[in-house]
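Subject: for your reference before the review

Hello V.,

The reviewers asked for a structural picture of the protein, and I figured it would be easier to keep everything in one thread rather than splitting it across files. Below is the amino acid sequence we used in the manuscript, unchanged from the supplementary table.
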Amino acid sequence: MIMVTAKIRSKSGERNNIIAKAQDLITSSRLDPGCISYNLYASTENENVLLMFEQWENFELLQSHMQTEHFKVFGTATEDILAGEIDISIYSAEVKN
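And here is what came back from the structure prediction:
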């Protein structure tokens, strides 16, 4: 399994705008092949920080997701309201039963 964290920093006053723009991305991404979960969380310590947490079956399906129209549209729609680049970390995890 692949896990992704994406720390999103909004410009002051733009957090809710990013959340609104993320709704289509979240809904559409959950339908992408290989998506296990796709969620957006708000920081309790900094009102301008959001965290996207994703789980994917494998890296190839994550790469396919990053080529989708909804992924690209979100990037374009938020580029002017971000306070910097999105900090993305990708992890490989083994599920043991």
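For the response letter, the relevant points are probably these. The two ends are 14 Å apart (CA to CA). The longest strand covers residues 2-9.

Happy to draft the paragraph if you're swamped.

O.
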